[in-house]
Design brief:
Its EC number is 3.5.2.3. The chain has 345 residues and is of the alpha/beta class. Helix content is 35%, strand content 18%. The two termini are 21 Å apart. The protein binds N-carbamoyl-L-aspartate (NCD) and zinc ion.
């Protein structure tokens, strides 16, 4: 039995840091385990320009603990009014690593997102020409579409057309939750990849809805039925370079989660690697963990792999039921559970 595993330091290819005091307190959790992270731009107001992204990056860097090597990779929040020249300039200057497309009102802080995907085509054409990565929150917002079908519907209505119209555009289908998304990514060209969160590998929708409503298992896209979870586990552990780690860690205070209108988002950062490696262990795929966590992402983003390493050991880890951010309670992913792996450093 493998009791210890050392891999190149991983990166988190989808992450929410927020801003202000919360950001300052959550950055160390990610910087402890990851060398880089793709930082989502859904602040209020959203990070829509090079100038805003550069300033946000500086605020994040100021929150990285002394002696810790961590690089935030910034994204541009695409809107109906995105200035493609500014985006291209920001990418050329190394401020932007990618741009993020939220359909308007699909999720937390997405009201300024695109109201019509096709209207963004001129910007996508420019991104294809400049080789800028497009990260997509792939859910339709049409109220007539059942929340459990919104990802599949997005593939059928928009994603297939984007891939066909922009055959060279690098696209990351973010936080995929369905076998339909796995199938789409598998049949697409090498320029189409996907991130997978720990929660969608661990839970299906029962974890959210059985035995009383479980707000700490609620995130968007929502967890789907078991057959989808199984297909995500197969994809993540398959060794395919099209799938890589993206926690979608999305901190919301306990009070905002345990509410009559609870926020979507799971705070996965504190024990992210322990969560993922548990899945790879259960699937008998520990030898493929490094690919998913540390190699496929950099290859897709055309960035160097990290030279430093991290070690995880088989040992009992009691995840605290609750942590504190800005003096308030926040419940981490796996809060109150015991995991079988521990991050050593
Ligand atoms: C994210 C958030 O809270 O910012 N929430 C979530 O449930 N994943 C937004 C997102 O990525 O959809
Ligand atoms: Zn997210």
């Amino acid at each position: 039995m493998t009791d210890s595993i050392t891999i190149r330091r991983p990166d988190d290819w989808h992450l929410h840091f927020r801003d202000g005091d919360v950001m300052r307190e959550v950055v160390p959790y990610t910087a402890r385990q990851f060398a880089r992270a793709i930082v989502m731009p859904n602040l209020t107001p959203p990070v829509t320009t090079t100038e805003l992204a550069a300033a946000y990056r500086d605020r994040i860097l100021a929150a990285v603990p002394a002696g810790v090597d961590f690089t935030p990779l910034m994204t541009c929040y695409l809107t109906d009014n995105t200035d493609a020249d500014d985006l291209a300039r920001g990418a050329a200057k190394g401020v932007f690593t990618a741009a993020k497309m939220y359909p308007a009102n699909a999720t937390t802080n997405s009201a300024a997102g695109v109201t019509n995907v096709e209207k963004l085509y001129p910007v996508l054409a420019r991104m294809e020409a400049e080789d800028i990565v497009l990260c997509i929150h792939g859910e339709v917002t049409d109220h007539a579409i059942d929340v459990f079908d919104r990802e599949k519907e997005f593939i059928d209505r928009h994603l297939r057309a984007i891939a066909a119209n922009f055959p060279k555009l690098r696209v990351v289908f973010e936080h995929i939750t369905t076998s339909d998304a796995v199938d789409f990514v598998m049949q697409a060209g090498p320029n189409v990849a996907a991130t997978i969160t720990p929660q969608h590998l661990h839970i299906n929708r029962n974890a959210m809805l059985v035995g009383g409503i479980q707000p700490h298992n609620y995130c968007l896209p929502v967890a789907k039925r078991e057959s989808h979870r199984l297909s995500l586990r197969k994809a993540a552990t398959s060794g395919s370079p099209k799938f890589f780690l993206g926690t979608d860690s999305a901190p919301h205070l306990r009070s905002a989660k345990e509410s009559a209108c609870g926020c979507a988002g799971i705070f996965g950062a504190p024990y992210a690697l322990e969560s993922y490696i548990t899945v790879f262990d259960e699937e008998g795929a520990l030898d493929r963990f490094e690919g998913f966590a540390s190699l496929h992402g950099p290859a897709f983003y055309k960035l160097p792999v990290n030279e430093a390493t991290v070690t995880l050991e088989r040992a009992e880890l009691a995840v605290p039921p609750c942590l504190h951010v800005t003096g308030e309670e926040i419940v981490p992913w796996h809060g109150g559970q015991t995991l079988g792996w521990k991050f050593v450093g």
